[in-house]
Amino acid sequence: MAKKAVILLSGGLDSTTCLAFAKRAGFELYALTLSYGQRHQAELSAARRVVKAYRVKKHLVLDLPLDSFGGSSLTDKGIRVPKGRSLRAMGQGIPSTYVPARNTVFLSTALAWAEALGASDLFIGVNALDYSGYPDCRPAFIRSFERLAKLATKKGVEGKWRLRVHTPLIRLSKAGIVRLGRKLGVDFSLTHSCYDPKKGGYPCGACDSCLLRAKGFREAGIQDPRS
To answer: pTM of the entire structure?
Structure first.
């Protein structure tokens, strides 16, 4: 019987490649998508397309209104999404698109579902190279969360269960992620990466996420079907 795994799925390039990786590894897929008050619904639509294509065992879309807190240009329409920044500028500091404690909240939610399912594996598509400076995408954060899970769960305390957070993309460049996605047969046209899409969900082409995605496809020598 295949082992169960909970995959955090936004519908973006990274999380979709991560899901494809988990499928290739033989896991039974339970996809979790969080509607956290982001400024658009395009990525939720993308997540549903991906789930349909991969025929996951179960897909949950949960409302988790982090926009109630504000503090990020992804959840507060009063804060502008940065556009047209150079790669050098993206590599300096933490941008306004950082959502306070988002990956901590997301992983904690996924942890709760995993414990209920009896699954000891989580997958998240974080990346420590082309990651726009987010502190919750680093290996140190992931390892710390695994230690927290052992201390914070009934099964962990009883010594019956040890959670592993899989991060297959964490040391890959964006080009490396694109190449891995192609190797895994990912249909990139299903995915959505833009922080501030135009009407109809079309990518703006100028936000950090669009620019990093374009860089990845360009360096991988592959045409992005969404461009």
So the answer is: 0.95
